[in-house]
Design a protein that fits this description.
The chain is of the alpha/beta class. The chain folds into 2 domains: about 170 residues, 3-Layer(bba) Sandwich (FAD/NAD(P)-binding domain); about 200 residues, D-Amino Acid Oxidase, Chain A, domain 2. Helices cover about 30% and strands about 25% of the residues. It has 12 helices and 19 strands. The strands form 3 sheets. Strands 3, 4, 5, 6, 7, 13, 14, 15, 16 and 17 form a 10-stranded mixed β-sheet that branches. A 6-stranded mixed β-sheet has the order 8-2-1-12-19-18, covered by helices on one side. Strand 9 and strand 10 form a beta hairpin. The two termini are about 35 Å apart.
């Protein structure tokens, strides 16, 4: 992106944030002809992208917050085996975000959001394959079933409406009960008496390695990766002109902010007050593969996923609300151990590695994918729990729009203007 290296007519774009969304955006921008520099203070894939469940959750079309979830939330907060946690000292700061989120829990609004999410996630496997094609990242991609596991028939029945939504999105399930559960996958213990098997999903065997390999592919295709701290945005006449780093200003024509839960600071520099919160997610990385399921399994009782990975089995999920500053809480790790051992009795939890990270959350459960006014600053943030799933599709759509192409999807539900009013 230095002036002497610039191709005639190619826009200079800085993508800030090297997680799955930022790397995917940079990759597609480069393929569409932009001169792109990808900037992050850490290595590509080292943040929240490193700690996710690794599932390409193509059927995850319904937002996590609706009226049913709202009714269940108070009881869940006082149930040690429920996957919802709250740091009570953070509640006063959380209340304005919750008030905005409550505007989107009605069925009409949930239907609108589900429709928009469906366009981002239902073809996730194909979107990942397209992004990874020609790079070393392709070896980390696996097509697979996605299994939902339930204690018994009553628990399965409770999930009926959610499974119906998935079926309407093109992901019908096969129901298995009793001994047929273990015949399908011997790793599933007797604590899972019923399962729903959904096809046309997939998973990543090493999320951090996958994102790093995509970034390496981006470099091999002519992009640039820089390890640097972004201090500010340089603007003239209300439009981006450069990225302020330590000791220099990097010129650019456009900037894409894809810093996950930390994105709000830079977007505020161009007048967007983004109501961004963090869903604090947890995982346990087990050392071995003994007792591992063959494919990702979502355990409904604790709303966590067990995924077989190259470095061992990962149990990931949980929702904790508590902001960016506080360290991990012990209770979510305890839940993963208790319910994980119940669902998968063959797993070895000895020396399990604990991790906590931040999933960026906007109150309407939809990401920001678009330009802030006519500033040349674009947001690519707010995917909640589907960042890995929807990252490549989101990156391609944003890149197409920035480069003046016409994407095959109306991005109006994701526009920045929806945050213009409090």
């Amino acid at each position: 992106m230095q002036g002497g290296d610039r191709r005639d007519g190619a826009p200079r774009v800085a993508v800030i944030g090297a997680g799955i969304v930022g790397v995917s955006t940079a990759l597609w921008l480069g393929r569409f002809g932009a001169e792109v520099t990808l900037i992050d203070r850490a290595a590509p894939g080292a943040g929240a992208s490193a700690g996710n469940a690794g599932v390409l959750a193509a059927s995850a079309v319904r937002p996590s917050l609706d009226r049913a979830a709202l009714r269940a939330a108070p009881g869940m907060l006082f149930d040690r085996d429920a996957p919802l946690f709250l740091r009570w000292s953070y509640l006063p700061r959380l209340l304005p975000w919750l008030a905005r989120a409550l505007r989107h829990v009605g069925e009409a609004e949930v239907g609108r959001i589900s429709d928009a999410l469906g366009h981002l996630v239902t073809d996730a496997v194909a979107a990942h394959e397209a992004a990874a094609r020609g790079t070393a990242a392709a070896r980390y991609l696996q097509r697979s079933d996605y299994v939902y596991g339930f204690r018994d028939a009553a628990a399965f029945a409770e999930a009926g409406p959610a499974l119906a939504v998935k079926a309407a999105a093109g992901f019908a399930h096969v129901r298995l009960s009793g001994a047929a559960v273990q015949e399908y996958d011997p790793a599933l213990g007797p604590g899972l008496g019923e399962i729903a098997v959904l096809g046309a999903h997939g998973f990543i065997t090493d999320p951090e390695g996958y994102v790093a390999a995509l970034a390496a592919g981006f470099e091999a295709e002519g992009g640039r990766v820089r390890r640097a701290e972004v201090r500010d945005l340089a603007c003239t006449g209300g439009r981006i002109t450069g990225i302020v780093l330590d000791g220099e200003v990097l010129p650019c024509d456009h900037a894409v902010i894809a810093m996950g839960a930390a994105s709000a600071r830079l977007l505020k520099a161009v007048g967007l007050s983004l109501p961004l919160e963090t869903e604090r997610g947890y995982h346990l990385q087990l050392r071995g593969t003994g007792g591992a399921p063959r494919q990702p399994v979502m355990v409904a009782e604790g709303q966590f996923v067990a995924t077989p990975m190259a470095k061992g089995v990962r149990l990931a999920g949980i929702l904790e609300l508590g902001g960016l500053a506080a360290g991990p809480s012990p209770a979510p790790f305890g839940l993963l151990r208790r319910l994980g051992a119940r669902a998968f009795p063959g797993l070895d939890f000895t020396d399990a590695e604990e991790w906590m990270g931040h999933r960026p959350a906007l109150p309407d459960s939809l990401p920001l994918l678009g330009q802030v006014g006519a500033t040349g600053v674009w947001g690519a943030v707010g995917h909640h729990h589907v960042g890995l799933t929807g990252g490549p599709k989101s990156g391609r759509l944003l890149a197409e729009t920035l480069m003046g192409r016409r994407p095959n999807l109306d991005l109006a539900p994701f526009r920045a203007e929806r945050f213009a009013r409090p």
